[in-house]
TrEMBL record:
Annotated SUPFAM superfamilies: GntR ligand-binding domain-like, Winged helix' DNA-binding domain
Top-level taxon of origin: Bacteria
MF annotations from Gene Ontology: DNA binding; DNA-binding transcription factor activity
Taxonomic source organism: Rhizobium pisi
Protein name, UniProt field: FadR family transcriptional regulator
Amino acid sequence: MTDKDNAVFNTTRQPPNLRSGLADTLMAQIESGDLKPGQRLPTEQAIMVATGVSRTIVREALATLRAKGLITTHQGLGAFVSNDPTPRSFSIIPNDLQSIDEVLRVLELRMGIEYEAAGLAALRRTGEDIDRMQDRLDALDKALEEGGYGAQEDYAFHRSILVATQNSYYSRLFDTFGNIMVPRQWARLDKMTSAERKRHAARMRREHHAIFAAIRDGNESAARRAIRTHLSKSTARFEELRDASTSS
C-alpha cells in the first residue's frame, strides 16, 4: 500500500464516537471518489496508525460499510470498495445509533418527514385510517400505563400517520427506521424516579393524543404543530441527556 493510498486517512478527525467518525470519513471518501470502485483499502493496521484508533473501532467501522454495501471483503486479500458503491437504498441500522448525537440527527430527519406527513394525513385520512390510529394509540396508552417503554407501540402509531397520507413512499421510508428510531438504551427510563416516569408517560400520552385529535378532525395546521411540538420536546430531552453525560 503506497503513501498516497494511505493519505486519505491522515486527516480523520476523532469525535466522541470514534467508530461513527471513522465510518463517516470512509463513506465520504468513497462517495467523493477519493476511494474508487475496486480500490483496496489500507490494512486494519495501516488505518489504526493513520487515525490513532483501536483495531476494534476499525473493524466496527468496516462492518458498518459492509452492511451498507459500500465495501466487500475477500479472505486473505483485505477490503475493497464495491464496484458499484452508490447505496441503492437508504437504511438506518442499529450500529448507526451509538450516541445521543446520532439519535438527535434521526429526530431531526423525522421532523422534516413527519411534519409534512401529519399535514397530509389530516387532509387525506379515511375512516379506516382513523380507526387504525386509534387502535395504535390505545396500545401505546396501555404500554405506558403498565410502565413500559412503549417503543414498538410508539413506532406503530407514528407509522399509521404516514399510512394516512395515502402516499406509500412515506411509510416505506419510515420502515427504514424500524423501532430503532429512538433506541431503548437512550430512553433512560430506568434512571427516572417513579414520579418522573409518571410525568413522562403523561406527557407522551398528551402529545400523541393531540396529534391524533388534529388529524382526526382534519385540522392540517394543528396536526403540523402537534407533531412538531412532540418531536421538539423529544429532542430537548435527548439534548439534556447528552449535556448531562458530557458534564458528568
